[in-house]
Amino acid sequence: MTDMLLEVKNLKKHFPIRKGLFSRIVGHVKAVDGLDLFIKRGETLGLVGESGCGKTTAGRLILRLLDVTEGSVTFDGRDVLAMGRKELRALRREMQIIFQDPYGSLNPRMTVGGMLSEAIRIHKLASGDAVKKRVAELLEIVGLSPHHSRRYPHEFSGGQRQRIGVARALAVNPKFIIADEPVSALDVSIQAQIINLLQDLQKQFQLTYLFIAHDLSVVKHISDRVAVMYLGRIVELAESSRLYESPKHPYTRALMSAVPIADPGAKGKRIILLGDVPSPANPPSGCPFHPRCRERLPRCDKVVPQLRDQGDGHYVSCLLYTPEFQSSSGRLGKSVIIDSDDQKKG
Predict the structure, then answer these.
(1) Burial state string for 35-59 with b = 16 or more CB within 10 A and e = fewer than 16
(2) Per-residue pLDDT, 238
(3) Where does the chain have alpha helices with state H?
């Protein structure tokens, strides 16, 4: 596809577990375990899921801030994982990240101007007075004043620090930005300001975003499409409006039922998932969600479902939506609806 900017296939990251005097490898934490997604030019893809599902790790793998165990990452037609150091440095101009912690991601010993000018000089985008001019321009773009370039990170509020993080990502004129929970540490009113800023910048500079978050209402507001992640895999991917109006995967439906409704008179059916998220060091066989699923099939503990297009770009990874089950549910066996008492016993 000509409008495809990023494509990720079967991406995996397994962290070794070491024990003993000689640090023998006794297992692996499967933080990301077969991730598949794609992002089109100029769109925002929201990536949501429970804490610990691998969202942040996935973002860092795409940028090669972490080494990949297995899989492929293709950016603008280029194989990111096959790049050498020189090629990767050039790619950094096109792919940037906004970190979750606006204070921890900034060097406390450098002024704002020093941090922004460093990226500009490293990539040789300007020199001399042109660097200062560019720094002042970046600060104004994100809603700060040029005189803020002389201050240090501790002299700013949380929202201002995140604006600096946005300015740092913009400093090298990127095509693609990964926003790793950029508003989760901010007050609600400041969250809205940062979200609006990101949307304005996207229109102004034709940016493409991967927006990682756990707040479903924020993701709905900013995203064109949404990918739902569970235990290192994408379980559902669709246009934002379609996903929120008609979620298909049992895990997605449970997540959506937890979103607060603004209307006091409205009543929604809450789907409570009993039990904890399985450990990524010892994931369940078959579908990773089957131990907590109220609609599981007898085969769910044996077969790993693939991400399939159900029509109109709505992808679901669930045996309930395979052609075999939909055409002849008897062959796969009927789904098992589990009530809360059964789950408590299990």
Answers:
(1) bbbbbbbebbbbbbbeeebbbbbbb
(2) 95
(3) 55-62, 85-92, 112-122, 129-141, 158-170, 188-205, 216-222, 240-245, 250-257, 323-327, 329-332, 340-345
User: Would you say 259 and 247 are in contact if contact means Cβ atoms under 8 Å apart?
Assistant: no
Which residues in 205-319 belong to E strands, given as ranges? Answer: 208-212, 225-230, 233-239, 295-296, 308-309, 315-316
Within a 10 A sphere around the Cβ of 18, how many other Cβ atoms? 11
Q: How many other CB atoms sit within 10 Å of the CB of residue 102?
A: 25
Q: Which residues contact 126 (CB under 8 A, 6 or more apart)?
A: 120, 133, 134
CA nearest neighbour of 148 among 183, 189, 116: 116
The Cα–Cα gap between 305 and 321 comes to 9
The pLDDT value recorded for residue 327 is 58
pLDDT, tens digit (0-9, with 9 covering 90-100), for 108-137: 999 999 999 998 999 989 988 999 999 999
Query: Could you give phi then psi for residue 234, rounded to 5 degrees?
Result: -85, 125
6, containing H or E segment: strand 4-19
Integer Cα distance of 164 and 170 in angstroms = 10
pTM of the complete model: 0.88
Range 93-101 average pLDDT: 92
Gap between the Cα atoms of 195 and 221, Å rounded: 9
The Cα–Cα gap between 53 and 57 comes to 9
Q: What would the mean pLDDT of 292-314 be, rounded to a whole number?
A: 90
Please give the Cα distance from 154 to 109 (Å, whole number). Answer: 10
Helix, strand counts (H, E) of the chain: 12, 14
